[in-house]
What does this fold into?
Amino acid sequence: MYALFKKNEELKGVRYQFLEETSLFGCKSGYLPWFLKNQLSAAQSEPLKWHVNMERSFKNAGQNNQVLIINLKPNRKDRKISLYELMDVWGSSHNGWTPVMFHLRGLFSDEKPPQNKSFVFEILHLNV
It folds into this structure.
């Protein structure tokens, strides 16, 4: 699950306000293609290496203080959750395949030991 949140830093800490469930991938509705469209030129060709810094990309799109939150365990039967803020995404697109690496900041995990405020790197392979 991917969700868009507004992030507000307050005296007592950080507050996240849910805005909507959303897509990260997908040509028509995904945040990554939308951000990359503004970064890449038509002259570039595959293999194409790219990087999206989420904070900078949201600011450039006029969506200050917005972040994407990922539940890394969306389909668990025991309903345990692990929430992470997406910080950066690196990818290399070539011939329909795109391996991507996420840089995530741990927000909440109901696993022991708690992983709050930890950083995680996750690798995915997309067939696009």
